[in-house]
Specification:
- The chain contains 8 helices and 12 strands.
- It has helices at residues 3-15, 55-58, 72-75, 91-96, 105-131, 156-162, 213-216, 229-243; strands at residues 21-22, 38-39, 45-50, 81-88, 136-137, 147-148, 151-152, 166-168, 174-176, 182-189, 222-223, 226-227.
- The strands form 5 sheets. Strands 3-4-10-5 form a 4-stranded antiparallel sheet, with helices on both faces.
- α1 (3-15) packs across α5.
- The protein is globular.
């Protein structure tokens, strides 16, 4: 099975996925930028990491994710590959959220309904791999998936980093060639898939550290030193209280140089 086969399978699934189009979105706390159906995501980027990559072990360091982070073969015994994908938000979702402070209705849909779509896409990919005779599992939908002190035992962003999809920003988002405004999914499998190269050597190779995300953060959680997840969570909890069941922010991922591309390198 080739990487292109996975790309085609995911694109085909997204094209026919009803959840990618919200037929009649409601204007929640803020008005919609335009009437009519709302498309959430553009075509995905796909990468494959080796389950034997030594970087998986480094994620267990206390200053990265933590010792509770499970390696690929803990999810699928004999795992050989981890497929990661990045779904970029459509221009309508991104542009709506460029306004300051209040989260755009379009972004709330992308964060909440979009989260279910990402999980469904990952499950569809796992089913495709199983139909081809391989074992495959989606860690974030597995009963063993857990979050401790805002750190999960499976990090989608780090999986995408190891799979060559992108590097981290000052705001701790992942910057891909399609930018940072989007969602990430992953599947662990024992299929011997061809691994994609990492065209970078450092965690923040694609971040220019321009600081544009600092004033964009309504929780003041981002500084030149990085991001504090505590204030970010408090702010997002506030959006949940205002928009239940939807929530989200995404200001640091919009109206920044890395919103939909890799910014100029340092």
């Amino acid at each position: 099975m080739r990487l292109m086969d996975l790309q085609v399978e995911l694109e085909r699934w997204l094209m026919h996925a009803g959840p990618n189009r919200i037929a009649q979105p409601e204007a929640l706390a803020t008005p919609l930028t335009a009437p009519g159906p709302l498309d959430l995501f553009e075509a995905p980027l796909v990468g494959v990491a080796s389950a034997a990559d030594p970087l998986w072990g480094r994620l267990r360091a206390p200053d990265v994710v933590g010792p509770h982070h499970l390696p690929p073969d803990a999810w699928v015994p004999g795992a050989r590959s981890v497929v990661a994908f990045f779904l970029p938000f459509t221009a309508r979702v991104r542009e709506a959220n460029r306004v300051p402070t209040e989260t755009a209705t379009e972004w709330l849909y992308g964060r909440y309904e979009g989260g279910f779509l990402v999980e469904a896409m990952a499950e569809a990919l796992a089913a495709h791999l199983r139909a081809s005779g391989w074992r495959a599992l989606v860690p974030v939908t597995d009963p063993r998936y857990a979050v401790q002190a805002m750190r999960a035992n499976w990090s989608e962003r780090h999986a995408a980093y190891i799979a060559g999809l992108g590097t981290f920003s000052l705001s701790r988002s992942l910057i891909t060639r399609a930018g940072s405004a989007g969602r990430i999914g992953s599947v662990v499998t024992d299929a011997p898939l061809p691994h994609t190269p990492r065209l970078y050597e450092t965690l923040d190779a694609y971040c220019g550290r321009c600081g544009a995300c600092i004033p964009r953060c309504p929780a003041a959680a981002i500084t030149e030193a990085g991001k504090e997840h505590g204030p970010c969570k408090v702010w997002q909890d506030g959006t949940l209280a205002r928009h239940q069941p939807r929530y989200g922010c995404g200001k640091c991922q919009t109206r920044t140089p890395c919103e939909h591309r890799i910014p100029v390198r340092r």
